[in-house]
Design brief:
two-stranded antiparallel sheet; 5 helices; 2 strands; 8% strand; globular
Length: 105
């Protein structure tokens, strides 16, 4: 018989809640280098879910507007702030991710 009490659930990958859950698991003082696709927080997140940086950028970044998105009314690229803004710590990125989720409703 299957014991349902031992099942661990995780948020669906490539979503803001999944990224947020992962960021919250990291030591908040850990730093990352934004703009380096090998060590930025998105690359580290990708490795944790068995993916790669390019897939995270394509599926999470562009779909959810996490890294950058085209602003139709301005016609330029607006960087959303989760990974780009300082400070570049996991705790600060988690706070920015939470605020982005709250703003999206």
């Amino acid at each position: 018989m299957f014991d349902f009490t031992t099942v661990e659930t995780k948020p669906v990958p490539f979503t803001l809640p999944s990224l947020y859950a992962w960021l919250r698991e990291q030591p908040p003082e850990w730093t990352y280098t934004w703009g380096n696709g090998c060590v930025c927080q998105f690359a580290q997140y990708a490795g944790s879910i068995g993916s790669n940086y390019s897939e995270v950028v394509d599926r999470l970044g562009r779909a959810a507007g996490v890294m950058s998105e085209i602003s139709p009314d301005k016609g330029n690229i607006e960087h959303t702030h989760i990974g780009v803004n300082s400070p570049h710590t996991m705790g600060a990125a988690a706070d920015r991710c939470r605020k982005a989720m709250e703003a999206r409703g």
